[in-house]
């Protein structure tokens, strides 16, 4: 996978190991702390040059040490600064050294009275927090958030778990977050992402090779990761060379979702798209289709006859499908073919998950599951119920169990492969949460599979394109708007 530090994500435990490896390699750890604190001070001055007071809330660990450095830099710049410390003042290590170099007084955290005009420098806990905050800290956080004071968080807003993005009792709402070397999962997983404000990644001087060596195949979903897998049209290209996608329609009163998927698949680059419809819905579908073809399929025998044609290269089953028993039968018939299973296609296996997983257990991964949290819990109940797991952990475990690529949807969609690779998507605007949006995503993934993309790259590229389409369509979009603004594969830079 791509190793650009802009896309790489490391957990707090991995970052602690990176810090140790850097120190063991001969890099001065206090010099790293100095650079980190100076970067925070620079960001605070850049964004809030007119602050009445910089209130630095400093914890007892290295995050607090960064805060002492930032406070010293701000004071040397002539800014009004006060530090409020939580817990015992650091006396040893880099944090103790930073505390000694700060010449001003340090008052206890409970003395801090937030006031309009304050800019808070949050140096309490950072990304390594693994417990719920106590009441004293929670009370300060509540007062700061109630006044909506600007907060510049060091590494991660205090109260946000850097591994999971969850809030540990209470959390500061930051306007800006300054982190170092690369982002943590908590910067992108909800609700942490919403609490970070604008996140700036500052290179404090740890060699990229040390950072990359400690990571475990977790990245931000960006085109650089999958761009080389995108199919490119040659001068002699024809429609069959771009793949033939088939999408299953539901019954007469549930045809729209499948048509959205089919239209998205055609727009996303599939050379041909066929809607597979039951007889009861054939007339309704025929009245709405133009470039998308139509084929009546009412049972497994008819499906088996259809898929004898190898030119049908990928399938989407689930959007608006409704008939769970038939869905299971169709999936079993398609066990050797690239398949996107969404919505009702996933729910159809809520009582028989092992049947689905065993059907796709062998060979290269060619199944993509696209659940939201509720659908995920129906087929991966034990994984969904484990409170210790992050969203990334859940997606990875589900991918390994099912031998499928998992697209665990949401504002912080995670894409995971059975081999442990995982991506967190970050480009989806909030207005993408609209009826039919997921059906469009399934069609884009199907189009990528139909064109021969590997399942993981097909899903990752589709999730990113889906988010980009939402951004371009703007707030108030409908699912049809998403389809209309899907750009061609050759336009992704």
Describe this structure in words.
- This protein has 493 residues and is α/β, with parallel strands linked by helices.
- It folds into two domains: 12-215, YjeF N-terminal domain (Rossmann fold, 3-Layer(aba) Sandwich); 223-491, UDP-N-acetylmuramoyl-L-alanine:D-glutamate ligase (3-Layer(aba) Sandwich), CATH 3.40.1190.
- It has 20 helices and 17 strands.
- The chain has helices at 12-24, 29-47, 62-76, 93-101, 135-147, 192-196, 208-214, 223-226, 256-267, 279-288, 300-306, 324-333, 344-347, 353-359, 373-379, 381-384, 391-402, 437-450, 455-473, 479-485; strands at 53-58, 81-85, 106-108, 118-123, 151-154, 176-180, 198-202, 218-220, 244-248, 272-277, 293-296, 314-317, 339-341, 367-369, 405-408, 414-416, 422-424.
- The strands form two sheets. It has a ten-stranded mixed beta sheet with strand order 8-17-16-15-14-13-12-9-10-11, with helices on both faces. Strands 3-2-1-4-5-6-7 form a seven-stranded parallel beta sheet, covered by helices on one side.
- Helix 2 crosses helix 4, helix 3 packs parallel to helix 4 (93-101) and helix 18 (437-450) crosses helix 19 (455-473).
- The longest helix has 19 residues, at 29-47.
- The chain is elongated.
- The mean pLDDT is 94.
- Keywords: ATP-binding, Isomerase, Lyase, Metal-binding, Multifunctional enzyme, NAD, NADP, Nucleotide-binding, Potassium.
- This is Bifunctional NAD(P)H-hydrate repair enzyme.
- In the C-terminal section; belongs to the NnrD/CARKD family. Belongs to the NnrE/AIBP family.
- AMP binds at residues 409-413, 438.
- Its cofactor is Mg(2+); K(+).
């Amino acid at each position: 996978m791509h190793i650009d530090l802009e896309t790489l994500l490391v957990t707090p435990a991995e970052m602690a190991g990176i810090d140790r490896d850097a120190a063991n390699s001969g890099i001065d750890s206090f010099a790293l702390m100095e650079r980190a604190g100076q970067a925070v001070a620079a960001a605070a001055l850049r964004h809030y040059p007119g602050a009445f007071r910089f209130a630095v809330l400093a914890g007892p660990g290295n995050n607090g040490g960064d805060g002492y450095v930032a406070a010293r830099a701000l004071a040397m710049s002539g800014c009004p600064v006060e530090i409020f410390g939580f817990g015992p003042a650091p006396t040893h290590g880099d944090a103790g050294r930073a505390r000694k170099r700060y010449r001003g007084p340090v008052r206890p955290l409970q003395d801090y009275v937030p006031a309009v005009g304050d800019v808070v420098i949050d140096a309490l806990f950072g990304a390594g927090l693994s417990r719920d905050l106590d009441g004293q800290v929670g009370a300060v956080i509540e007062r700061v958030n109630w006044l909506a004071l600007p907060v510049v968080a060091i590494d991660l807003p205090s109260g946000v778990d850097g591994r999971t993005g969850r809030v540990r009792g209470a959390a500061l709402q930051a306007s800006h977050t300054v982190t170092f070397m690369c982002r943590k999962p908590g910067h992108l997983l909800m609700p942490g992402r919403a609490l970070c404000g604008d996140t700036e990644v500052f290179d404090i001087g740890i060699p990229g090779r040390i950072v990359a060596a400690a990571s475990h195949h977790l990245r931000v979903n960006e085109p650089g990761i999958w761009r080389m897998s995108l199919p490119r049209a040659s001068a002699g290209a024809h429609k069959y060379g771009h793949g033939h996608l088939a999408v299953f329609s539901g019954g007469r009163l549930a045809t729209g979702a499948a048509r959205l998927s089919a239209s998205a698949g055609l727009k996303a680059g599939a050379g041909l798209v066929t809607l597979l419809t039951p007889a009861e819905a054939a007339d309704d579908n025929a009245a709405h289709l133009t470039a998308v073809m139509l084929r009546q399929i009412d049972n497994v025998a008819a499906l088996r006859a259809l898929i004898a044609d190898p030119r049908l290269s990928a399938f989407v089953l689930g959007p608006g499908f409704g008939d769970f028993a038939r869905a299971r039968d169709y999936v079993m018939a398609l066990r050797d073919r690239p398949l996107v299973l969404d919505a009702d296609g996933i729910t159809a296996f809520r009582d028989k998950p092992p049947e689905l997983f065993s059907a796709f257990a062998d060979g290269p991964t060619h199944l993509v599951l696209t659940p939201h949290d509720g659908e995920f819990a129906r087929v991966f109940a034990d994984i969904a119920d484990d409170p210790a797991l992050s969203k990334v952990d859940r997606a990875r475990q589900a991918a390994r169990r099912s031998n499928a690529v998992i697209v665990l949807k949401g504002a912080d969609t995670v894409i995971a492969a059975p081999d442990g690779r995982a991506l967190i998507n970050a480009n989806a605007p909030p207005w993408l949460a609209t009826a039919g949006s997921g059906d469009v995503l399934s069609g884009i993934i199907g189009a990528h599979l139909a064109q021969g993309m590997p399942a993981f790259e097909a899903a990752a590229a589709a999730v990113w394109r889906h988010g980009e389409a939402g951004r371009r369509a703007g707030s108030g979009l409908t699912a049809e708007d998403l389809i209309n603004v899907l750009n061609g594969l050759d336009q992704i830079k």
